[in-house]
Amino acid sequence: MSFNRNVFTDKALSDAAQQSYETRDDRGNRRTYIDIEALPVPLLRIGNGEHYIDHIPTVAGENHPSKAPGTPIYVLLVFSHTGLGPNRDDFLCMAATYGKPCAACDRRNMLLDAGFDWNDIPQKYKSSKRGVYYVLCRDNQKMVETGLQVMELSHYLYEHNLSEQAKIPVLPGESPEGGLGFRPFASPEHGDTVYFKHVGKQLKSRIEGIQFIPRKFKIPDAMLETTFNNPLDRFLIFPDQEEIRQLVAEPIPEKGAQQGGSVRAGRAKEAVEAAMQAGAAAPGIGGPAGGDDQIPGPAGADYDSADADADADGYFEPGLPPDDDIPF
Ligand SMILES: [Zn+2]
């Protein structure tokens, strides 16, 4: 190709700028456990700010972890491993979600069995609970015009608080009015818009002030038909365990040993390395792991890829019991 300065036309460079603009929110090659391309609607990842969300009900599909196909739901609860490999990809945790083998959980269990402290194990080897929803976001005109979207959020941050807030308090000895123990905020007829504030970043990320605003309109048939015919579990990507095994086959973390006082972790590291050199297979998984919730780190923008820049090691939020993992 010989030099020709005339190739740099205004049109060519305007097109290049336009292409860059249109792909400015792309997440690169970073993968997630949802097949975004196959979704019938865009994926919404919200960040800091005030949000107004209408939950649109759907039904469980063939891949739902616990409910029969056709069961009405408003959230799909799954577990994922965040930040695996050079692209910090997200993968579905097959162990915590389905009770099937998961190479990332195997890795975590191997380190635990070798004597590592829970807190010295990288967060990416622990699964975190996530909620996937069909929603209408009514934060601004652009979001309203976008219409139906799929929203994905940390269970710890959102669903945990939302379901708590939806509980209708009843005085001891009395029965709930209308027989409903929880507010049916996702009802197409009598639902509510959920208001909340998403504040802070990374470790300090939190959701505050969840409130219900009675919705003044009914969810149209066409929208319900879309969610009914497209169960969210249909879009889960079941990871190749061999690929995950390769992604987690990396040097043993030294956190405990480096921070002093953890002779135990040092010994555990030696034990694991010896086992790896001997070609020992990783111990099997011990059933659903569960309970390892983490807080996702929203990136700067309100509707950005919330976890794109997450330092997965930094978001562990201990304290939720495994019992909390029962899908709502
Ligand atoms: Zn797992």
Outline the structure in words.
- With 328 residues, the protein is an alpha+beta fold.
- It has a domain at 29-102 and 122-248 and 292-310: Replication Fork Single-Stranded DNA Binding Protein (Alpha-Beta Complex).
- Helices cover 25% and strands 19% of the residues.
- The chain has nine helices and ten strands.
- Strands 1, 2, 5, 6, 7, 8, 9 and 10 form an eight-stranded mixed β-sheet that branches. The chain has a two-stranded antiparallel ribbon with strand order 3-4.
- The protein is globular.
- The chain binds zinc ion (ZN).
What are the SSEs and their pairings?
Layout: H1 10-22, E1 43-44, E2 49-56, E3 58-59, E4 72-73, E5 76-84, E6 89-92, H2 94-98, H3 103-113, E7 128-137, H4 141-146, E8 148-154, H5 155-166, E9 192-199, E10 206-214, H6 221-229, H7 241-248, H8 255-258, H9 263-277
The structure holds zinc ion.
Quick tags:
alpha+beta; 9 helices; binds zinc ion; two-stranded antiparallel sheet; Replication Fork Single-Stranded DNA Binding Protein; eight-stranded mixed beta sheet; globular; 328 residues; disordered C terminus
Main sheet overview: 8 strands, mixed
| Distance between the first and last residues' Cα | 62 Å
The counted number of beta strands is: 10
User: How many distinct helices?
Assistant: 9
CATH C-level name of the domain at 29-102 and 122-248 and 292-310: Alpha Beta
Strand content: 15-25%
Radius of gyration, CA atoms, in whole angstroms: 23 Å
Helix content: 25-40%
Structural class: alpha+beta
Q: Give the overall shape, derived from the CA principal axes.
A: globular
Q: SSE string, helix = H, strand = E? A: HEEEEEEHHEHEHEEHHHH
Bound molecules: zinc ion
Quickly give the CATH architecture of the domain at 29-102 and 122-248 and 292-310.
Alpha-Beta Complex
> Uncertain spans, ≥5 residues at pLDDT below 50?
257-263, 279-302, 304-328
What is the mean pLDDT?
A: 81
In CATH, the topology of the domain at 29-102 and 122-248 and 292-310 is named Replication Fork Single-Stranded DNA Binding Protein
